Amino acid sequence: MVGISCRAAVIAGVALSLTAFSASADPLVISNWDGYLAPDAIKKFNEASGNSAELVLHATNEEIMGKLIAAKGKGYDVVFVSSPFAEVLHNLGLAETLDHSKIPNLANLYPEATALAHDKGNTFSVPYTWGTTGLCYRSDLTPAPTSWNDLLKPTDALKGKTTMLATDRWLLAAGFLAEGYSVNETDKAKLQQTRDLLIAAKKTLLAYDDTTFYSKLVSGEAQLVQAWDGWCNYGITENPQIKYVIPKEGSDLWVDTMVILKSSEHKDAAYAFVNTMLDGANHRWAAENILYKVPNKAAMDGLDPKLLEKYPNMTMTPAELLTHEQLRDVGAAQRDYSRTVSEIKASN
């Protein structure tokens, strides 16, 4: 998820068992985050298609991007990356221009999933999951928040009981939104103003936390946290008093995508894999187990209504999602983002 780390290494309740597939000395190589595919997805794909595919894991977008850029994409066939990184791969000429005739299951996607700002028409990326970033809180311990400032300028009762995401784009996005700016803001004066706001907020935090914040809510150590919607659902699983809300200033729209590398020597197999993932039943696995919304109408229509009742943020419609600004590649300004976040975290 440009400075975007992804849904970091551990996805609650979803353990991925990796099996070595050695049918070919030169297999189709798929790079993804841990727990983002069904445990038997690769095995089933190989058996059904006759391909030899293997899964390698990356912990963050930055990790896999470093490898892809250094090798000009060689050694990889399909990569799961967040949309700003897909944009970077396209701009660097590393992403394949997609032949839609080879991905007939694109028809399962919502129309809104073909109109995403980073890649209108899905010319180089296929959306896999999407959602929002908001506030996750213990409704039995603190009043319902309504604004990002409830997190950034907490009451005395909440000081020391809040967490924020540590990753550049989402940490800054909370400040940008609180100030009424774009989540892709590049104006240096506005970036400095946001830095000052977040430095002040740091003094009130329990921690920066990308992976265990929902556990802190469950234990009561934290009462209000910045959270991706799906990760808030992990907390809700353990304690129904945990709730999720999008502040009045809005959210970012995050999108995780599948990209076929232009350097792939297994293009037909790569297309077959992407198409397989877009099958309604296969894609539904992600919604049911990762608890993220997926941009696949066939998959979402097949969800158990009880699941949607338990996790209300999963009922957010595609049209509602697209009212929020999508995270984009900010180009050279990413250096300013990284420097700003370093200054925030180094502050006293």
From TrEMBL:
<dbReference type="InterPro" id="IPR001188">
    <property type="entry name" value="Sperm_putr-bd"/>
</dbReference>
<dbReference type="GO" id="GO:0019808">
    <property type="term" value="F:polyamine binding"/>
</dbReference>
<dbReference type="Pfam" id="PF13416">
    <property type="entry name" value="SBP_bac_8"/>
</dbReference>
<dbReference type="GO" id="GO:0042597">
    <property type="term" value="C:periplasmic space"/>
</dbReference>
<protein>
    <submittedName>
        <fullName>Spermidine/putrescine transport system substrate-binding protein</fullName>
    </submittedName>
</protein>
<keyword id="KW-0813">Transport</keyword>
<keyword id="KW-0732">Signal</keyword>
<dbReference type="GO" id="GO:0015846">
    <property type="term" value="P:polyamine transport"/>
</dbReference>
<feature type="signal peptide">
    <location>
        <begin position="1"/>
        <end position="25"/>
    </location>
</feature>
<dbReference type="InterPro" id="IPR006059">
    <property type="entry name" value="SBP"/>
</dbReference>
<keyword id="KW-0574">Periplasm</keyword>
